[in-house]
Write a structure and sequence with these properties.
The protein is an alpha/beta fold and 349 residues long. Helix content is 40%, strand content 17%. It contains twelve helices and 14 strands. The strands form three sheets. It has a six-stranded parallel β-sheet with strand order 2-1-5-6-7-13, sandwiched between helices. Helix 1 packs across helix 3 and helix 4 runs parallel beside helix 12. The longest helix has 17 residues. The protein is elongated.
């Protein structure tokens, strides 16, 4: 198998080091690691805190080569149409490859301020041959564990910049930002605002950079007050839309960097008695089912989520067979899907 994590990470602490840190015996620490019930609650708490503090991860008890037909998919959550598209893409590609997929959700949930470690333990017990991560933020110890044990993995739409050598699949977010903004500029809008996701996430930064590039190429003045970050949250997008409307020169068009946030923008516009697109145009990003259900139907940038997931699964299969991908980053094309939420600015023409 191919080692895809950083090769320079040192091995983690032994169980003896954890036991000493927690002030218990090695057998007691082992009971906690293996989920045994015959440990006092206070003792379990001390050992668990030491495990997390020191970055200890359980060593695998399996030979992954014995279970070649099983892979894990770790997703951020299962309560969105985004996740549904990813699951669909992985399932179809896995079926073609003759693989079974185990899905885990909530990798980044915390308990008592500490990341939960359950997915690692389950991966260890199952003997999966590889892992797909979607919208996941791995800790240094998790990257180290995967690298040390030569478990191949691929990141789907990674949240942040990845360590060297990590394989990922995403979309052409910068080009999508350019396309959305150029569409609005082509309709005659010059006061175009953007409601982005998180400031430091890869996809959000790229979409805003594309927005800025399109404005600069068109010779349209960039306004700092027109750039808002709503963290991909629908409620925050609604509030930011109200703030934009309260500006002395409010925008005539919104580029909203996710369809879910666009729903929040729609809500704010409705609360102001404004009509889309008669009073203000809106472009989203993703092309989720929600974009077709709203009225008017949302013009949006299609991000090929199912195709991204299927591509990641195929890359993972190659890595499971010992192949090394030619590059670590694969980006699939985005495209504008025209519907009814954009028009020339009011009074134009």
């Amino acid at each position: 198998m191919v080692r895809t994590g950083s090769a320079s990470v040192a091995a983690g602490p032994t169980l003896a080091v954890v036991a000493r840190e927690a002030g218990v015996s090695v057998p007691t620490a082992s009971k906690v690691v293996n989920g045994r019930e015959d440990v006092a609650p206070e003792t379990r708490r001390r050992v668990t805190e030491a495990l997390d503090r020191l970055g200890y991860v359980r060593r695998p008890r399996f030979d992954a080569a014995k279970v070649p037909g099983l892979v894990d998919l770790v997703v951020h959550s299962l309560d969105s149409s985004w996740s549904g598209a990813v699951l669909h893409g992985v399932e179809e590609a896995a079926h073609e490859a003759g693989l079974e997929v185990v899905v885990s959700a909530g990798l980044n949930r915390t308990r008592g301020g500490r990341p939960e470690r359950g997915w690692l333990d389950k991966l260890t017990a199952r003997g999966s041959s590889g892992v797909l991560f979607n919208l996941a933020e791995l800790s240094a110890s998790q990257y180290a564990w995967l690298g040390q044990h030569r478990i191949p993995y691929v990141m789907i739409d990674p949240v942040h910049e990845l360590p060297p050598g990590v394989v990922s699949v995403g979309a052409q977010n910068w080009q999508g930002g350019v396309t959305a903004t150029e569409h609005l500029l082509g309709l005659g809008h010059e006061r175009v605002a953007v409601i982005a996701g998180h400031r430091r996430t890869m996809c959000s930064s790229a979409r805003v950079a594309g927005y800025r590039s399109a404005l600069a190429s068109a010779g349209v003045r960039q306004r700092a007050e027109y750039v808002r970050h709503a963290g991909f949250d629908e409620t925050a997008a609604r509030l930011h839309t109200h703030e934009l409307l309260d500006l002395p020169e409010p925008p005539t068009a919104l580029f909203v960097c996710s369809d879910r946030m666009a729903l929040g923008a729609y809500a704010a516009l409705a609360e102001r008695g404004l009509r889309v697109p008669d009073d203000i145009s809106v472009v989203g990003f993703d092309d989720l089912p929600e974009s077709r259900w709203v009225a008017p139907a949302l013009t949006t940038v299609r991000q090929p989520l199912a195709e991204m997931a299927a591509t990641a699964l195929r890359l993972l299969v190659r890595m499971m067979h010992g192949e090394r991908p030619e590059g670590t980053r694969t980006e699939l094309s985005t495209r504008l899907v025209l519907r009814e939420s954009t028009a020339a600015p009011s009074g134009a023409g």
